[in-house]
Write a structure and sequence with these properties.
Elements: H1 5-39, E1 44-53, H2 59-68, H3 75-84, E2 94-100, H4 104-113, E3 119-122, H5 129-138, H6 144-153, H7 155-159, E4 175-178, H8 184-196, H9 201-210, H10 214-227, H11 234-246, H12 254-258, H13 268-271, H14 296-303, E5 312-315, E6 321-324, H15 327-340, H16 343-347
Antiparallel strand pairs: 1-2, 3-4, 5-6
Helix pairs in contact: 1-3, 2-3, 5-6, 10-11, 10-14, 11-14
Amino acid sequence: MMSGSPSLMRRLVANYRLFKAFLLAGVTLGIFLLAMFSLTPGPRLAHPQIVPLKPTDSLTKVVLKLRRARAVRSFWLALAYARALGLKRRIKPGVYAFVGNERIDQVFGHLIRGDSLAVTVVIPEGFTVWQIAERLERLGLVCADDFAKAAISGPVVRALHMEPTGAEGYLFPATYYFAPGVGGDEIILTMLARFYRILDRQVEEREFALGINTHQMVTLASIIEKEAKRPEEQPIIASVFYNRMRLGMPLQSDPTAEYDPQFVVRSAHEAVHTASAFNTYDFVGLPPGPIANPGLSAIKAVLYPAQTDYLYFVARSDGSHVFSRSFAEHRRAVAALRAVTSPARLGESSAPLFRGPQSTARHKPKKK
């Protein structure tokens, strides 16, 4: 028994060394295959493959989606690669598009950087909810009718107690990037969040100093946004409206008369003669809510108006305005502009031709 033990030990040692050699060879082969796999691009795909990744997706599910989209060559090797590098916590959710011919590090690089597929949406200053809805529909993101309804009376609006005028005025004009398949409520929340970021303590202090609340501020800013064609005139137009409200004069702003919360489109001539809650020819003060979504410059004009004694303004053909202190001065400005501008061209302006305290009828340009 004892004489055979050295031989047995030698065999055990030999087997152990053989096992280690095989194990080392296997690990080396695995590393080699993984390296070759990571350095070898996948096949070029005939059409882009869309891969949506959710925040709740496990690493296994992420890799499975990549394999189904043929973004990676092997599920198991891709999973091993991601686990070996600890990529799970670094992958960003989103909607990704893959066209193939990429190495595994490039594929996961997209997920780590968050190079998700996005639709660029540019919302100009002064767009209404309906105009935003139409633009989003043209880009294939939403149904315009559904978005408009959600923005006026949907669950987000109700949760934030924004009734009855809804999110009109609060969908901040900017450039946004949305993933395909994004919901209307998510778009509304994103735009609202952008708006509320500008409401810092300084804005609240200015509102308090002016004796207005945020809703009044946004409402007046929306009117200024629609009236002013030149940003440098916005503070002056703001001063006109402040002066008229202080004196108890109607704002008499054409854009307010033209605005319809049901998105009915009317000409300026018809609108000013149509009674509505927004037609500021018919009452003193602000309408019940914004008539568009103002940009930052219009908001600043409300918070920091120019100091003037103007009460009237009329538009030139180039979009600038002539400002007047009295109704008589205003009438002379209108007459002077008509002398050099065709009545039809003058009538196209959305700027109000305010009636003065002495006037008993709407003072509107007549189209010939």
